[in-house]
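User: Design a sequence. Structure:
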């Protein structure tokens, strides 16, 4: 963080962890994780996929609520005004690229939603699910950092959740926007952490509630 931001108190107060975690998994659909598709296979996204799978194994084992999403539309008329050709042409319900990657999706456990905008919380019911489950701390994973992760993190903040973004569980097409956006949301809205921090938080929460 630059000295000027520090002098103006940005990032001075950590978000911290609350009483119960929940995990959101944003857009790990084949369109982003399979290199045969135009947006698929970016190295940072694949690293995030692997680390998120590790996080989810721990989360599910301890009964942590998990919500996963894809982005898909009936047709182009239903879409917002996307500026990305590949989204307009392939993010359709009928297209195989919208299927969730099986490495991060457990249909028997996860709440699965299809979102229409950047944030997993926008008009999806995920916040209602977390309210029922008494989640107060949201761990944000998925892709892309500069788009739907940032949008999800801002909504999580606005919904008054403590919000954690593990750097190694989110990814983008290029490293610079990945780093820039994590820096910016870390100054204002979230704690930027890592996989180890999140698994430790979940393990501590599980031990505290085991009795």
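Assistant: Done.
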């Amino acid at each position: 963080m630059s000295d000027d931001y520090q002098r103006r108190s940005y990032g001075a107060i950590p978000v911290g962890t609350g009483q119960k975690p929940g995990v959101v998994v944003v857009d790990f659909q084949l369109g982003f994780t399979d290199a045969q598709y135009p947006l698929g296979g970016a190295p940072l996204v694949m690293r995030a996929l692997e680390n998120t799978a590790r996080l989810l194994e721990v989360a599910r084992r301890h009964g942590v609520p998990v919500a996963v999403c894809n982005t898909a539309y009936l047709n182009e008329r239903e879409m917002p005004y996307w500026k990305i050709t590949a989204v307009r042409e392939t993010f359709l319900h009928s297209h195989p690229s919208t299927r969730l990657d099986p490495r991060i999706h457990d249909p028997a456990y996860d709440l699965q939603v299809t979102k229409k905008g950047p944030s997993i919380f926008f008009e999806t019911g995920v916040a209602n699910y977390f309210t029922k489950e008494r989640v107060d701390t949201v761990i944000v994973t998925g892709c892309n950092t500069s788009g739907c992760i940032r949008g999800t993190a801002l909504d999580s903040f606005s919904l008054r959740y403590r919000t954690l973004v593990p750097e190694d569980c989110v990814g983008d097409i290029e490293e610079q926007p990945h780093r820039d956006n994590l820096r910016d949301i870390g100054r204002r809205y979230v704690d930027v952490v890592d996989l180890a921090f999140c698994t430790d938080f979940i393990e501590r929460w599980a031990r505290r509630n085991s009795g």
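Helices lie at 3-7, 30-33, 43-61, 85-90, 126-132, 145-158, 175-188, 195-208. The chain has a mean pLDDT of 97.
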